[in-house]
Amino acid sequence: MVRLRREIEGVRRNYAAPHPAYALDETASAAVLPVLDEWLLAQEPGRVALAGSPRRDLAEALAKAGHWVTVSDLEDEALRQWHAELAPDVASHLTLLARPYGDVTFGPASFDRVALFDGLSAYQEPGWILHKASRELKPDGLLAVREPVRGNLPVGWASLGRGYSPTRLRAVQKLLSAAPQLLSGRAGPWLLQPDALDAIERGAHLDPGRFALTATELQEAVAAVLTIEQTWIGHSARLAACSLPWRAKPALRRAALAAIQQTPVAADVVDAGLPAPRLVGLVARRSLRGPGFA
After folding, report:
1. Burial readout 96-127 (b: 16 or more C-beta within 10 A, e: otherwise)
2. Given a cut of 80, is residue 96 above it in pLDDT?
3. Which residue among 174, 178, 287, 288 sits deepest, i.e. has the most Cβ atoms within 10 Å of its Cβ?
């Protein structure tokens, strides 16, 4: 009991910010790495915790599929309104928490699956939140992590993207690479809501240099606690496009949603050589510690 109390207090001390590491609205969050959502929906019904970036769309889909879902979401009023509009049989499968996952203590073996979206970089010590999730998983329970990472990918991490014109993709990448500077300048007030402008000024939006973890560091942090079974690597252009709709005015939002459709989901060989941020998805099992990748 003393050890448990110390671990929970450690999580709270190491919590740096209550917001996800990367600002994504629900539409973009569903599009940025859909394979992880598909994996969660394909699992047998059970108790699931969702934390990090707002994923009410995924929570609702899981509840409709028979899962019992606990949602940690900081947008309290929006969360309550969304829940009130759901069908009773869906709403009854949802538990709502308007607090960060790191500030809430669940009993041991509470969940069959825990999904952390874009939140590890908000902690000074990501290992604390991983230990917390591991303790709250049932034996053989599964942790799903989606996290933006910085720097180049290690050799062997990339998968070949197919079905996209290299010429068109290069053009889209050039436009996306110019977007942060454009939105941080005079065009920002015309294209973004005030809270997005405030976030850019604080370095909390469209700033890839602030991500605390590289792909290797993320792998090592998760593998130190759980056994990694599956990995997905997102394309850097997809993450860049998906970041733009957050608190955007209609013109930019429409352009960003169109750009998302022009970018691959998976990393390709050329993309793997770029030091641009991208999303990594991992699935790890609570079992005897083993090698990082099966």
Report:
1. bbeebbbebebeeebbbbbbbbbbbbbbebbb
2. yes
3. 287
